[in-house]
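Q: Here's a chain of 376 amino acids. Please give me its 3D structure as tokens.
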Amino acid sequence: MSAIPRPRTTTRDPEELTRRLTDWLGTRLPGARVTAATVPGSNGMSSETLLFDLDHPRPSSPESPAPPGQDGIPRSCALRLAADPAAYTVFPRYDMARQFHTLRLVAAHTDVPVPRTLWLEEDPAHLGAPFFVMARAEGRVPPDVMPYTYEGSWLHAATDAERDRLEAASVAVLAHLHDQVPIRAAGFLATPGEGSALHRHVEAQRAYYAWVVDGRPRSPLIERGFAWLAAHWPKDPGEAVLTWGDARIGNVVYDGFEPAAVLDWEMAALGPRELDLGWMVFLHRFFQDLTERSGQRGLPDLLRREVVESRYARLTGHAPRDMEFHTLYAALRHAIVMLRVAYRQVHFGEIPAPDDADALILHRDALEAMTEGRYW
């Protein structure tokens, strides 16, 4: 394959969104207006992002704030907007307040670099859905399309030493997050239900899968994956910590090869440390496997499972355990998301509905190999 298909990511008009955002900003920062608004090419299929500059030329006074950049309000900003509820959303619920408060929690308790949050708006009347505004981080993000594992990306073109530096710093983000956030302060991220944090996390994924296939063909592969988890459940899931959720290098803005901003906290939850470690390892394997299938070598030495485990253990004193369980669980969770995204493409007429639901899962072979004990 030459590329990963890119489904539509929004049904909104960027110009109309910019106008309405300018109107709203006037209620928070009188005289402010949005300029140079752009939708990033990496715009997600869950929450949407709009990058913009904040223009506020009025002079400073007690009644009128100083222009952006002079009063601590940055000139370069980003809007994070919940998905249009009428646009066949990827997830059933978008809690922007939860993301906003997670960013503030991480900023208050850790040295993990996260964007500075500015304003939260929970009333959907203004832009059609809740949203928040944050400072924009400058730097480079390993791309998803074309994946950073392909020839031509800045990360592929880097030296082995530079990629090693990026990997070490990225694993350190997880170590610091897990060790530094007091669990008592993160209680609002607990998944409802009974049992351990891991049990509740998996049950929430079962519920998400049921929502994805409601009225659509079911996935035998995903259901085998859930059966495998039940048969290989960890004897001791471990302590619960704050997990990032979408822990992958494609959600980090890098200044050179050091993290400048850690993004996308909508999947944050309480759970064992290995949730993040398994996700970081598998999401790289996902892109690496696709790259090798296209005939390229990719980056096979980046984010190798045993190296990530070793780095994390040295930083935290916690030796990761049950990683086959957690990497398979990551692959399973990703498969559910991919199935929903594919059904969204079917809904919009971008692809035909296949006879086999499992054919919609790009990493079908990898997940099958994991359940059969032959992937690693």
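Q: Can you summarize the key feature?
A: The chain has two domains: 14-135, 154-371.
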